[in-house]
Predict the structure.
Amino acid sequence: MAPPGEGAPSPVARLLARAVDVRPVEVPGLVAAFAYHFLLFTAYYILRPIRDSMGVTGGVENLDDLFGWTLLGMLVAVPLFGWISGRYRRAVFLPWTYLFFVAQLVAFWAVFTASEHYAATARVFFVWVSVFNLFVIAVFWSFMADLFDKEQGKRLFAFITAGASVGAMTGSGVTAFLAQSVGEVNLLLVSATLLASTLFLMRYLLGWSAAQGARGERIEERPMGGNPFAGLKLVLTSPYLGGIATFVFLMAAVNTFLYLQQADLLRIHFPDGDARTAFLGRIELTMSVITLVLQFFAVGRLTRRAGVAAMIVVVPLFVMAGFLLIAASPTLMTLVGVFIARRVGQYAIVRPCREMLYTNVDRESKYKAKNVNDTLVYRSSDYVVAKAHDAIVSTWSATLSGVALVGAGVAAAWAIVAFMLGRAHERKQ
């Protein structure tokens, strides 16, 4: 029976209720959030294989330096975002953040179109996408944590994350099947158009929030205030937010170990750039299909029953086992298999659980501290681990098996932090 004033559930609400535990009043916001996430990830996953291919074009030997330039970009961008988010209402700074990236995508298309020899520009593009993807996704999840509370997060975030999987599948499919015929450069305009279209859904969600409030009260639309470095201060002074930072650092470290090993093997097996991009697109498509099934039908209900602590530790333990498998069988297909499994686990389980961690903190932590963790901490890990990887390979002449054993140790530490953080979230009101 519907609550008083709500009326009978709509057909859409009844259909959604079969996959997710959603209340009728939440359906419009949930559908809009899903669509927003879908468009955002379609735009990004068109770019992702292009970025990875251009990283190889710019020279595999330059990848650790590219991680360094990406970190430098974050050191500039994070305090700038902190200043903007403190000075302006979210209805202002959220859309302008996206418009800024749309304009830059169009500019990259113009530069790539004007020149056939773009190794240097390819390296700049690699850095730009590495900054772009974390920022737009971090902003999205800050917004979601502001719209939905802790209890809603357990029920709804896995389904919202499924929007990313559908988008990743769509974007990967576009790149996989059109990169060679259309040309990877022209796909930048498609990505820019999709990213711009998310602004309409963003505006709708702002209106939906103001009209009925996800927490039973209006969320005030006013600037947060604070200085540009407030997010960093929050991370350094709060054990809970600092724990999330440690979790993100170790998670990114695991990703970087796998990424660098994959890039080295791709250079050998796929010397042609368009063929390499198409292969990467097919990998992304495979991951998206598997992830989508888990998000729609399993993760939300399992998280509600088992709790965040139990769910968030599963993937680190699995990744540790994967690294040990790579150490025993160091081939491209083994590496790709573990890479796929890790990414599926990260997006199907780790991502929604990680975003739930922010549903019970204040707004400044949701936007500023979260932005520090999801961008600056993440890319700091990229840079530190890339340099450590280079030192391990050059100093110890480590093989893929040797690097995989180091990765297994990092994954074990990640599992310990994940479990402790999950328990802290469950205790936190």
